Amino acid sequence: MNNTQKRVESITARDVDFAQWYTDLCLKAELMDYSEVKGFIIYRPYGYAIWENIMFYLDREFKLTGHENVYMPLVIPESLFQKEKDHVEGFAPETAMITTTGIEELTERLIIRPTSEVLFGTHYAKVVNSYRDLPKLYNQWCSVVRWEKTTRPFLRGKEFLWQEGHTVHADEAEARAETLGILEIYRRLGEELLAIPFVTGRKTEREKFAGAIETYSIEALMPDGQALQSGTTHYFGQGFAKAFDIKFQDENNQLQHVHQTSWGVSTRLIGAVIMVHGDDEGLIMPPYVAPVQVVIIPIQGQRDNVKKAAVDLRDKLRGQGVRVTLDDTNKTPGWKFSEYEMKGVPVRIELGPRDLEKGEVVLFTRHDRMKRSVALDDVASMLPDLFKTIHQDIYQKALDHVRSNTYEATDYDTFKALIKKGGYVAVSISGEEAEIKIKEDTSATARVIPFDQTLITKTCPVTGKPATQTVWFARAY
Amino acid sequence: MNNTQKRVESITARDVDFAQWYTDLCLKAELMDYSEVKGFIIYRPYGYAIWENIMFYLDREFKLTGHENVYMPLVIPESLFQKEKDHVEGFAPETAMITTTGIEELTERLIIRPTSEVLFGTHYAKVVNSYRDLPKLYNQWCSVVRWEKTTRPFLRGKEFLWQEGHTVHADEAEARAETLGILEIYRRLGEELLAIPFVTGRKTEREKFAGAIETYSIEALMPDGQALQSGTTHYFGQGFAKAFDIKFQDENNQLQHVHQTSWGVSTRLIGAVIMVHGDDEGLIMPPYVAPVQVVIIPIQGQRDNVKKAAVDLRDKLRGQGVRVTLDDTNKTPGWKFSEYEMKGVPVRIELGPRDLEKGEVVLFTRHDRMKRSVALDDVASMLPDLFKTIHQDIYQKALDHVRSNTYEATDYDTFKALIKKGGYVAVSISGEEAEIKIKEDTSATARVIPFDQTLITKTCPVTGKPATQTVWFARAY
User: Fold this and answer.
1) May I ask the CATH architecture of the domain A406-474?
2) pLDDT of residue A8 exceeding 70
3) Predicted pLDDT of residue B9
């Protein structure tokens, strides 16, 4: 079992250096690799397959709720980009620009989209004329470029993959409902696919998106006590509509500006899955998002009966839609065990000649590292329930972590101590003045204003002024 | 029926101006729109949905044949791009480059990928070490940028969407088999999904891809007699492997360079579907690739029984996986008829109160513009066969067009006359000298060297030298 030891030892332990554990795992589980340009990563098959499963889930949900996919250009003329003032201020420093081609300098610089509000805005201005044209519920799957200084695989990149929804509506209520409806889809993506209990809520003025009236967010809590903003939805009101002149004739023949939203999640979610569930042995993939749900490992696989049983089982599982891999390479079983444990494959089935004589196999579940003997004939039929149990176990563990690391603070010293410890700390503050002071003192930021609002204290522990709202703070990625 | 007339009249007739008919249709069928930057188009929902159906078909085929999806960066450092000489010469003039960001000039220019051979090559050099790592069969779905001077929607753009497969193999035979295997998948995509009879074959030296040893192609014949190269597969030999140092240890512990392929189809296929099948009334969408397969149009839709029957039918069809739209807006039936005819929806079902009393509906098929009465209860069960028949009819029509516009030439005057007439002209030529002369004299190019080789004449009609191979020529997009 020399190989096993070696492989596992090569991942830094989480307690020793959480950041290094994360990077080790990204590389060694073959989720990604670095490219020649800093901040631009290569999504390797095992990493990209996670994204494909996320896309599949969301695309279906978006379509069931009436959304349509489009594709907007990669580039935005600089002059067009500058049309919405708040928006351009938020993004201008991070933009990458095409200025020349192989034959000629361009007369106007072209910005590689950091997000596509202005492209959708320009298009909507052309195609929306009447209330009959509304709502328009568009989404696109693409990559965007933001020239970030500090980059980390999946969490923050100069280029990342995402979906960006952009919708226009005849009235405010419908647009606001859209931002909350999508937020709920994102929350369910966490609950049903990623096994991540996202905390949801509204962003403070300071933390909201450039140009938005409201920003809502899903936040995940990492094992190191830091929060990870994992997706956002924005209500723009009529700001973009006025800047881009998106008007429609209402049922009374009056010209009105549309009400607009945008929303997105990105490959950052892959980073969330890695961090929330992984352990010192490697990844733990929740079964519904796992690229490989079951790996079959033959023991003494050169024997005919083992070989046949392995192939038959693989074909049977594949036939019922399980994502299954049979590893019949000539590597040792020990090497394979640690390899697929590191890759977080939820279920391993060991097929050995002796067990097979008894009609049995050994089934190993990655999340609890438990082994048990089961009848070969039962494997296929037991998997749906097993996946469900694994998913629930993993979700519950993550939920327990959130619950045991969420605090309320009634005085500022306690608040600071808790923030230092890690986790979410709820505090009732007077407003932006308190938010700024908290960031200066602790580097924690306002994560969300929860929908369910109760004041913890009547006075803000930071400023001593009357408290106006309860906000969850945390240090964040 | 005033609206109908107006709408249909707004598309230029094909005989009057084929190019204008094409552009009219792209815009009026809402497949695309122009953006603010020339050559960068907006894929609107109806156009993007065609691409989604193509992606769905191909992605499944690729995965069934062992391919995995990855995502490589958008950008290539200029120095890296220049590693493979033939390749860089082919693409350098068309490249767009990022030179600056919102805060700083870059120290090295970054090329927006025009294709990703060099990115895959660099990555493969890192991850391929042993024969056990081979083959690697990667594909990616993305957009690429090529600074074309003349652009047309879907056919030639500065940015387009595509898939690019890049594979590395231990030996030449397997790599060559890969290029032919993918070519066959592309051919079947035409036969089974797009209803386009692609002609397949090898490209001449002059026409092959920059850096390739062999290029294979699928070609479609347009109604104007011009060919459209619709997809290519390339065998690179070990050229890229040597430039990028992609080596592996073989079973005898010898270091070898891999054998490499690449292959791709793009949103140009949407252009092929439009041109091959469309008529003066608009698009004709083959049912399996059609974004909407059936449109239900209620007549006097305000009546309760009509409304109920329409919704019930829609839900029933949707339940069996048919892509169906119910248009219950307050536009006139006549307007709707012409709108969905223009959009090429294969089947229209008219639900009127009188027909319903008899338990009947009117079913209209777009490709032959035939109407018939059918029992409402039979609609759902008849659709699978109906789609099949429509698909076959459309395919046969396109095949007849290819057959009646494919000629053999035994002398050069006849060759020139036939090329002028339009279509494929097969001729047995001596080699590149003849190919160059043909292009100068007629602007026709070698489309393919068919796999099935028989010499038509012993002497090349162009040069008078001994003929060496039979080549299909045509003018091309």
Assistant:
1) 2-Layer Sandwich (3.30)
2) no
3) 56
**DSSP per-residue letters across A43-75:** E-HHHHHHHHHHHHHHHHHHHHTT-EE-B--SE
The predicted structure's pLDDT at residue B272? 98
- How many residues would you count in chain B? 477
A385-395 pLDDT tens trace: 999 999 999 99
Q: What letter represents residue B440's amino acid?
A: E
Name the DSSP class of A274.
Answer: H
Do the domains A13-277 and A406-474 sit in the same CATH topology, yes or no? no
Which of the following CATH numbers is that of domain B294-389: 3.40.50.2300, 3.40.630.30, 3.40.30.10, 3.40.50.800? 3.40.50.800
What are the pLDDT digits (tens) for A346-397? Answer: 999 999 999 999 999 999 999 999 999 999 999 999 999 999 999 999 999 9
Question: Is the CB of residue A73 less than 8 Å away from at least one CB of chain B?
Answer: yes
pLDDT in tens, B9-28: 588 999 999 999 999 999 99
Domain boundaries defined on chain A: 13-277, 294-397, 406-474
Alpha carbon separation from B120 to A328, B81, B116, B244, B400 (Å, rounded): 27, 12, 6, 10, 41
At residue B87, the pLDDT reads: 76
CB-CB neighbors (< 8 A) of B71 in chain A: 42-43, 48, 51, 143, 161
Query: Residue B259: helix, strand or coil by DSSP?
Result: strand
Residues 6 or more apart whose Cβ sits within 8 Å of residue B196: B190, B220, B230, B272, B273, B276, B395, B398
Distance CA B278, CA B17 (A): 14
- The structure tokens listed for A189 are 């993506």
Percent of chain B clearing pLDDT 90 (strictly above): 93
Residue A6 has a pLDDT of 45
Does the pLDDT of residue B5 top 80, yes or no? Answer: no
Task: Return the SS3 of B437.
Answer: helix
- Amino acid at residue number A145: V
Query: Which CATH code, of 3.30.420.40, 3.40.50.970, 3.30.930.10, 2.130.10.10, is assigned to B13-277?
Result: 3.30.930.10
The answer regarding whether domain A294-397 maps to CATH 3.40.50.300 reads: no
Which residues in chain A are contacts of B37 at CB distance < 8 A? 73, 75, 77, 110
| R_g (Cα) of chain B, nearest Å | 25
Do the chains contact at A93 and B103, CB–CB below 8 Å?
Answer: yes
User: Over the stretch A397-449, which tens digit does the pLDDT of each residue have?
Assistant: 999 999 999 999 999 999 999 999 999 999 999 999 999 999 999 999 999 99
**Which tokens hold the place of A273?**
């899955």
With b for 16 or more beta-carbon neighbours within 10 A and e for fewer, the A177-192 pattern comes to ebbbebbebbbebbee
CB A470 within 8 A of CB A428: yes
Per mean pLDDT, which range of A122-131, A414-423, B83-92 is the poorest?
A: B83-92
Report CB contact under 8 Å: B73, A40. Answer: yes
Chain centroid offset of residue B102 CA: 37
Put simply, the chain B residues between 87 and 106 with a CB less than 8 A from any chain A CB are: 91-103
Percentage, residues of chain A above pLDDT 70: 98
- Closest to B142 in 3D by CA, of A162, A142, A47, A52: A142
Best A28, A62, A74, A138 residue to mutate vs chain B (most B CBs within 10 Å)? A74
**B34-56 pLDDT tens trace:** 999 999 999 999 999 999 999 99
DSSP letters spanning A325-382: EE--SSS-HHHHHHHHHHTT-SEEEEE-HHHHHTTEEEEEETTTTEEEEEEGGGHHHH
Span B244-248, mean pLDDT? 97
